[in-house]
From TrEMBL:
Coiled coil: none annotated. It comes from Algibacter marinivivus. The keyword Transferase applies. This is Glycosyltransferase family 1 protein. GO terms for molecular function: glycosyltransferase activity. SUPFAM superfamilies: UDP-Glycosyltransferase/glycogen phosphorylase.
Amino acid sequence: MNQNQKKRILIIASAAGSLKSFRGDFIKDLTLEGYKVYAAAPGIEEYKETYKFLTDLNVTPLNLKLQRSGLNPIKDFKSIKALKKLIKENKIDLVFPYTIKPVVYGSIAANSLNVPVISLITGLGYTFSGVSKKAKVLQKFSQVLYRKALKTNNLIVFQNIDDYQLFLDKKIMTENQKYGIVSGSGINLDQYKFRKKSANGTNIEFVFVARLIREKGINLYIEAAKKLKSKYPQAKFHILGKSPQGSPSAIDNTILENENKKGTIIQHGWVNNVQEFLSDCHVFVLPTFYREGVPRSILEALSIGMPIITTNTPGCKETIIKNQNGILIEPRNLDSLIDALEFFINNSDKIEEMGINSRKYAEKRFDVNIINRQLISSIKDVLA
């Protein structure tokens, strides 16, 4: 019998779909190592594809009452209570939460039961990148919650060094606490096949893939497209993604509709076949100023073999090797973005070589097998 057979791991997510799309390979590798895996997320049974994926691996899906956003002390206390119940009933040996609420409430619940915790910090999002009064209040409150929750974690894993440094600077954790750094969530290189793509003249197709919120740089991308389209009418600016309902940062859909009608952009909305769109385009663009871990969309573009334009910010700058596979721009800087886009329009002969370098970099640094080996090694150390 595998020595890990009786060890039970609970993975906690705030979005059920991410258990397959972001953690699928990790969960699969845990089961191959002999661990009994449980996966908890709000409304998990409603995500049919994710639910089937988990049950096919003999992973136990668990429904979790958790409000993904906002702060409601009564509901949040109930979430902690529900997590304690799940941990006790399923005799969990280790809790592995990711994203802020699962990390905070999962850690508090597990710590109260003396169950080991490895928290994965997958970027800090709107709370730490927003500049509004509300964002600043949330940031202060989040720091208090993180500090309390992470105090007794066995290990805290970050996806970039900047987030670790910020946690030290804000005194959320101390230098004595154990931590690790991994290069994002990793990418399955077998699923995202490399394709060689060359370009001629100014017929360059750019593509933006993200939730359509201000912090992801969508407004900046559209403004750049407006300025460049009149000068280079053959260039195309694709947008994949949708505007999240209820988000104060969501782009006004009328802007998208108007610019789409004008031919400034090509708006595709939310699509399932992202890989096909990436394969058909030349250059990937993400001018984000969101506190990313390492953006999944960039990893997909790297794997396929696309040059990248992204910002010199935590989680994004790690994906670029200067002058080899893309261009780093300054966040919130329209001129910087226009210069980068124009570089590829006027230097289309660089696209194929940079795309090859992107794939090589993905193989060297962002292969999901490398990331998962690091995480599973940490789990073994904690449970030893």
